[in-house]
Amino acid sequence: MQYQLIDDFGRQVDYVRISVTDRCDFRCVYCMAEEMTFLPRHSIMSIEEIELVAKAFVALGVTRIRLTGGEPLVRRGLVENLHKIGKLEGLNELLITTNGSQLVRHAKTLKEAGVKRLNVSLDSLDEAKFTAMTRTGKLSQVLQGIDAAIEEGFERIKINAVVMRGSNDDEVLDLVDFARDKAIDIAFIEEMPLGNIQSHDRALTYCSSDDVREMIEQHYPLTHNPQKTAGPSRYYSMPNHKTQIGFISPHSHNFCSDCNRVRVTVEGRLLLCLGNEHSLDLMPILRSQPGQIVPLQEAIIAAMALKPEKHHFDLHEKPQILRFMNATGG
Ligand code: SAM
Ligand code: SF4
After folding, report:
1. Per-residue pLDDT at 317
2. pLDDT of 206-215, one tens digit each?
3. Atom 10 in ligand 1: residue holding the nearest Cα
4. Is the pLDDT of residue 312 over 70?
5. N vs C: which end of the chain shows fewer Cβ within 10 Å?
6. What is the pLDDT of residues 119-130, one digit of tens each?
7. Which is the closest atom of ligand 2 to the Cα of 27?
């Protein structure tokens, strides 16, 4: 039976982001605290449980799945088994968001498993700044990873860059030129207040998408592309160039009215909105009725009624969402 996932505001959910691990080899300052305690193995979904969740959503009409985390490519057993999700009938797109550190090793297998598009996070092209922002990352590894992915010929590769005033806002143009040189796309993200961090005051480092766009427009005129995409980005193009520039603006351009997605955290919690706690725990179903798809589907359909109308982020207040992005699945 083909169900449709429609919420109380008439929005059809056809896109799911599944967090496959909360662990990561980086500690990006906007995403994690310096000292993190990661979840014990028994409280995270097994690879089989992740596959079942994916299968349940696809059977309900979901056509796009993005695997994220934490860093999805550090999850043991994931890459080797990815083709099982990639080959689900009805799934149009299997996507991955990665920090790129393991791409040299995995790009080929990802392509073979049916991954069509990759988002690779890259906030800086300056070695020292990159390490400062990621705390542990090595720029050269990520750049080699991006080249390996380009070599594999994915349908689309997009750089994701969180822009922080005083850290990397002076690199906006360099990042655009990098994307142009590589003939790939790039999206600039406004930092979201997820989790309590001590490294910086988010209100002070906030850099709006409009400011970023102005910086770019001083060098390249931008034309808005009105076509809808699967995600919250608004896209612009430059004259005579195929590189698209996206803006993800949770503060300055609320995108909730078009929201077509839900998330599943690595603990199996179905999260109906990134900026709210409305959720339904799928883990008790996964564990009490292992391998059973029907109860899972029933719970997912019922959860649609919990999807809130919109998120409310305020950088001047204490974060209301205490879960970090790595646990949420960005
Ligand atoms: N580790 C992978 C990566 O970095 O691409 C996937 C997970 S990461 C949580 C997904 C995306 O969320 C990245 O592009 C990252 O820059 C972004 N992100 C993390 N914390 C964020 C925050 N507080 N506000 C906005 N974007 C954030
Ligand atoms: Fe890791 Fe991605 Fe979070 Fe950076 S943004 S710490 S790479 S999960």
Report:
1. 59
2. 989 999 999 9
3. 330
4. no
5. N
6. 999 999 999 999
7. 6
**Distances in Å between the alpha carbon of 259 and those of 8, 65, 149, 270, 308?**
12, 15, 29, 15, 10
Question: In this predicted structure, what is the pLDDT of residue 1?
Answer: 45
- Provide the angle, in degrees to the nearest 10, between the axes of the packed helices 78-86 and 47-59: 20
Q: Which pLDDT score is estimated for 95?
A: 96
pTM greater than 0.85: yes
Atom of ligand 2 nearest to the CA of 25: 1
Q: How far is the CA of 218 from the centre of ligand 2 (A)?
A: 31
Nearest CA to ligand 2 atom 4: 28
Kindly tell me if the per-residue pLDDT of 319 is higher than 70: no
Q: Are 114 and 83 in contact (CB under 8 A)?
A: yes
Which of 67, 42, 39 lies closest to 54 in space, CA to CA?
A: 67
* 103-112 vs 139-152: helix crossing angle, rounded to 10: 30
The closest of 221, 301, 329 to 12, measured between CA atoms, is 301
Task: Indicate the CATH number of 15-328 among 3.20.20.70, 3.40.50.2000, 3.40.50.9100, 3.60.20.10.
Answer: 3.20.20.70
CB of 24 closer than 6 angstroms to any ligand 1 atom: yes
Neighbours of 140 (CB within 10 A): 10
Residue of 159, 87, 62, 64 lying closest to 118 (CA atoms): 159
Q: Of the ligands numbered here, which is closest to the C-alpha atom of 160?
A: 1
Pocket test for ligand 1, best of 20, 31, 119, 160 (most atoms within 8 A of CB): 31
